[in-house]
Amino acid sequence: MKINRRQLRSLIKEMAAKQPGELSDRFYWEVKKWSAKLSDEDEWDGHDGDKTVNNVLIAGYVHADGRSRPSRVAGIFIKQKPWSECNHWEVKNASVSRYSDVFGDDLVDLGPMMYDIAMEIAGDDGMISDSDGTSGDAQRVWDFYLTNRVGVDVEVLDLDMTTCGRDGSSPDLVFKNKVYYKKAGSSSIIGKLKDLDKIKFENFN
């Protein structure tokens, strides 16, 4: 997962459990889904170039005063190879407060909600860290999310070490060897956002 230190500080700082009802009228989430051939992907290329990968971008937008278009202030990008033995959704990028010139309470505590949405979309396929490499900084985000995200039911299972590019060579990065699921029967963050008209979907059936 690509994440720099500034984004890490923002994600960890805002691990309080913001609720959908706390979002202002200026804020909304947008979820886009599309498919592409691996040969056209920057992250995944090689021998399976004729296969298709699924992509989902979950982005948070704020209608700021004096701007004709909403500003993107948060986002998480997940990908899936549905045909492979590693069909979990991989977190490729995650960031909050992307534009520092946009201010307001809507920018506080977006990280956990963003991960909640992504994990719910991943569903039974589960969510994992980037198979192309990650860092100890990302470990802190995963750990803090799991131990401090109050009110979210997350199930964590061991990842098959013969899949997803894992070989056990980084035992200190525990999160790399785990699959994260939202527990069945837990409340739907997407449902709450839909009720408040705070989330939009593109290319979802």
Question: What does this 3D model show about the protein?
Answer:
With 205 residues, the chain is an alpha/beta fold. 20% of the residues lie in helices and 27% in strands. The protein has one domain. The radius of gyration is 17 Å and the shape is globular. The longest helix has 13 residues, at 110-122. The chain has helices at residues 5-13, 110-122, 136-148, 189-195, and strands spanning 27-37, 52-62, 71-80, 89-96, 127-128, 154-158, 178-182, 199-202. The mean pLDDT is 78.
Which range best describes the helical content: under 10%, 10-25%, 25-40%, 40-55%, 55-70% or over 70%? 10-25%
Count every beta strand, where a strand is a DSSP E run of 2 or more residues.
Answer: 8
Q: Give the integer mean of the pLDDT values.
A: 78
Our measurement of the CA-to-CA distance between the termini, rounded to an integer number of angstroms, reads: 28 Å
Tell me the series of helices and strands, N- to C-terminal: HEEEEHEHEEHE
Which term fits the overall shape? globular
Over all CA atoms, what is the radius of gyration?
Answer: 17 Å
**Biggest sheet: strand arrangement:** 5-4-3-2-1-8
Beta-strand fraction estimate: 25-35%
The low-confidence runs, each spanning 5 or more residues with pLDDT under 50, are none
The class by helix and strand makeup works out as alpha/beta
